[in-house]
Design goal:
This protein has 359 residues and is mainly α. Helices cover 66% and strands 0% of the residues.
């Protein structure tokens, strides 16, 4: 959540409640008995602080039930932030600024971890979304990363195979991405087109579906060719067919792709890969441009674009981990705080001598 002007009311209410609590604590702590969690004022501070913590904890329940019509999601999130912070002050007033026993020390430590991790998470939410828009132009959902990586890998396979020949790779792993990309780009006109596309890219492409055997159509009777005219014969003789120009060093391109580029495009590639760093990536492709002929420059350009996009997806995953990783500490410790709170209440009811009565 971004801290903006919409938090002014919550900040004002939190400040007023904190001021009232601080004045009340100073008044009752200055008495002859001092501050104590077993006194009536101390107990009231504890109840108010606990109620604030419960309200902050109900944010998880609100997210599990999005149709819950008690307040908006923004209301609950703002209350989670401000009342969660304010609850610490009231718990301090309840304890009289004392550590207490082992259970109470555990409560304080859990509370400190929750508050600090929450502040860190809130700070990340102020910075990382802006960093995401500037450093990751191709922003997408994190759940789409496997599909995007598989699609880029298949398209790169197709581009390299068209210039360097079929790839000696197991085609089974690429079938899903091949079908998705082919359908998205409307390459499939017939059922057998997918098999043809995959077979043209991979050497060991397996048969996707056995083609139904159809009766062979009778061939039309061959016509007896007549004697070609002298003009046509002269044209055939005088126009020799030009032999296609062979592209050299395609094996070097294929080796560079299979050993360096293709592993980097995979979803399992690491962010510390050499191609993940822009300077090393430019150096690697720059050297290949020097080594390979001009016919392969377009292929290198497309492969470098794929690597640029894959590098952006690496940054996206890293920023996403920082943006949400603190929750793996914040949420479990919050659950442990609830358990410690119940233990604290049970022990207090049985051990602590209460300093007030209803009489």
């Amino acid at each position: 959540m971004i801290l903006d002007r919409s938090h002014r009311q919550w900040l004002l209410v939190t400040g007023i409640l904190f001021g009232l609590g601080a004045v009340s604590y100073a008044w009752y702590a200055s008495g002859p008995a001092g501050a104590s969690g077993g006194s009536l004022p101390g107990l009231m501070f504890g109840i108010v602080g606990t109620a604030m913590m419960i309200f902050a904890g109900l944010l998880s329940a609100r997210r599990q039930v999005p149709t819950w019509r008690i307040g908006s999601a923004q209301f609950w999130l703002k209350g989670h932030i401000w009342l969660g912070l304010l609850s610490v002050a009231f718990i301090l007033f309840h304890s009289g600024f004392r550590w207490g026993g082992p259970v109470e020390i555990g409560l304080w430590l859990a509370t400190a971890v929750i508050i600090l991790s929450g502040i860190v998470g809130l700070a990340f939410q102020q910075v990382l979304p802006r960093l995401l828009t500037t450093r990751v132009p191709r922003e997408t959902f994190i759940d789409q990363l496997p599909y995007l990586c598989a699609s880029m890998q298949f398209l790169a396979d197709k581009i390299v195979s068209e210039s360097s020949g079929k790839l000696d790779i197991n085609a089974e792993a690429a079938l899903g991405a091949a079908e998705d990309v082919a359908r998205q780009r409307k390459w499939l006109k017939r059922e057998s087109d997918l098999q043809k596309i995959v077979s043209a890219i991979y050497e060991n492409a397996s048969q996707l579906r056995p083609e139904e055997s159809a009766p062979a159509k009778p061939k039309p009777a061959a016509k007896t060719p007549g004697k070609p005219s002298a003009l046509l014969a002269a044209q055939v003789v005088s126009e020799p067919v030009a032999a296609p120009r062979a592209v050299i060093r395609t094996e070097e391109l294929k080796s560079f792709y299979l050993k360096t580029v293709r592993p980097f495009l995979a979803i399992s590639s690491r962010g510390d890969s050499p191609l993940a760093q822009s300077d090393r990536r430019r150096a690697a492709f720059g050297q290949m441009r020097v080594d390979l002929p001009s016919e392969l420059q377009d292929v290198l350009e497309q492969l470098e674009q794929f690597c640029d996009e894959r590098s952006q997806l690496h940054r996206l995953r890293t920023i996403h981990r920082w943006l949400h990783g603190w929750l793996f500490l914040h949420v479990p410790v919050s659950a442990s705080l609830l358990v410690l709170f119940i233990v604290h209440v049970v022990i207090s009811l049985r051990v602590v001598p209460w300093e007030w009565s209803w009489e």
